[in-house]
Amino acid sequence: MNYHVLTLFPEMIEQGMNTSIIGRAIEQGLLSLEAVNIRDYSTNKHHKVDDYPYGGGAGMVMQAQPIYDAYCALEKKMEKKPRVIYLTPQGRTFSQKIAQDLAKEQNLVFLCGHYEGIDERVLEEIVTDYVSIGDYVLTGGELPAMVMMDTISRLIPGVLNNEDSAEYESFQNSLLEHPQYSRPEVWKDKRVPEVLLSGHHEKIAQWRHEQSLERTFLRRPDLLEKAPLDKKDKKYIEQIAANQAISDENVTEE
Ligand code: ADE
Predict the structure, then answer these.
(1) Vertex 63, ends 57 and 64: CA angle to 5°?
(2) Which end of the chain is more exposed for a tag (fewer CB within 10 A), N or C?
């Protein structure tokens, strides 16, 4: 996977991405990252990249020319037109499913905006995907681009140490991950659940699955609509719901 980020703050991308697991994957050659400074492509003698909006209004708008030229320089080096992701609160909300789809690409270009936005004409010309990371407004697209690259990178074979860890985690099958425990066995009078010490793999797998169901029901019930549940799972959830109704009743009575 080769990432290319069009930005006014390349050092923010480089510093944010060159550490930890992603940094190691870049060193190993599993990923590459190129942060392109849009300002380097400005034909203006003062390297200006923004101007006032036509029609008036607050703030400045990023101009089309430097962004387009920066993009063309990237495209020239590629065999086929890449997907170009513009980070914007007006886009589709990013999800694990979108990450899985994007992880199949050889090259991804991220376009990071600033100020009051980007001249619409260059967006029409180069952008293939409009993506938001949630319903809130950030000062620029760099953090969302890094969120997306981090999520996509851990799906690339070899990036995570343990090949299965991407498979079992939250969202992969629309269920939240089960709780985890490590040493010591007792901490602040809290014991690690007995079954995890039993060495009985089948029982452990069943307990973990039930914990996933319970967690998802309690914390993110909306996810259960998409989860592939069998009869046994549905029964288990009904039981949790019934137990919860009883404990809610007890609370009201007190
Ligand atoms: N730029 C500013 N806010 C954003 C958001 N929520 N998602 C993606 N890009 C953004």
Answers:
(1) 130
(2) C
> Nearest CA to 176 among 96, 247, 253, 117?
96
Burial of 177 (0-12, 13-18, 19+ CB in 10 A): middle
Q: For position 238, which CATH number holds? A: 1.10.1270.20
Which neighbouring-strand residues pair with 93? 132
- Asked whether 54 lines ligand 1 (CB < 6 A), one says no
Q: What pTM did the predictor assign?
A: 0.92
Q: How far is the CA of 13 from the centre of ligand 1 (A)?
A: 15
The Cα–Cα gap between 173 and 177 comes to: 10
Q: Are residues 135 and 93 in the same domain?
A: yes
Structural domain includes residue 167: no
The minimum-distance atom of ligand 1 relative to the CA of 139 is 2
Give the chain's length. Answer: 254
